[in-house]
Specification:
alpha+beta, 70 residues, 37% strand, four-stranded mixed β-sheet, TTHA1013/TTHA0281-like, 1 helix, elongated, 4 strands
Length: 70
């Protein structure tokens, strides 16, 4: 099974905001991408159907937009 999660950096809140793009109903945030991955490894299995067995592949699509001086 594969779960696709989109994340973006919210510069105002200073957190990564993540949500699933399917019907999983996942929404969370974390201060670092590593902390986000840790949260996802707990949340994703909890949100799966009770009868789901086996490994779950998580595809995390992260975006961060920033400006640099030219």
């Amino acid at each position: 099974m594969r779960v696709v999660i989109e994340a973006f950096w919210d510069d105002e809140a200073k957190v990564w905001v993540a949500s699933s793009i399917d019907d999983l109903g996942l929404a969370t945030e974390a201060e670092t991408i590593e902390a986000l991955q840790q949260k996802l490894s707990v949340m994703v299995p909890d949100l799966l159907q009770p009868d789901h067995e086996g490994p779950v592949e998580v595809e995390l699509l992260a975006r961060n937009t920033y400006t640099i001086a030219a």
